[in-house]
């Protein structure tokens, strides 16, 4: 995680319809003639690009301090909604872990993977 302080602004834990929770810096914006919430999700100490959410899609909005947001932020990519995870830069994704069991011949079912 980055040790740099978060920029000033309003932070919140936002629950959106579809069982998605997004934690980050929020502000109200107007786009396409409608009021939207712009939220910059926190991921591993960094603010990601803003995501726009319509007010009617917000299930729960919990304002919090930047410190609380930092403690509750997503630290693994699976904790982010799919639409946000799809836009992560490759450098933000974790490196694949080596699994020695994958190379084990103990349970050889005859299939060869190369």
UniProtKB/TrEMBL annotation:
Q: Where is the composition biased (Acidic residues)?
A: 104-114
Q: What is the superkingdom listed in this entry's lineage? A: Bacteria
The region called Disordered is annotated at: 95-114
Listed name of the protein: Uncharacterized protein
Organism of derivation: Sphingomonas turrisvirgatae
């Amino acid at each position: 995680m980055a040790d740099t302080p978060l920029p000033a602004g309003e932070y919140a834990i936002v629950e959106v319809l579809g069982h998605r929770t997004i934690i980050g810096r929020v502000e109200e914006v107007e786009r396409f003639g409608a009021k939207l919430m712009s939220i910059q999700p926190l991921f591993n100490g960094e603010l990601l690009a803003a995501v726009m959410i319509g007010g009617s899609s917000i299930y729960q909005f919990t304002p919090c301090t930047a410190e609380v947001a930092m403690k509750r932020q997503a630290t693994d990519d699976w904790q982010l909604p799919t639409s946000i995870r799809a836009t992560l830069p490759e450098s933000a994704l974790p490196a694949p872990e080596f699994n020695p069991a994958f190379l084990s011949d103990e349970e050889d079912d005859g299939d060869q993977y190369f």
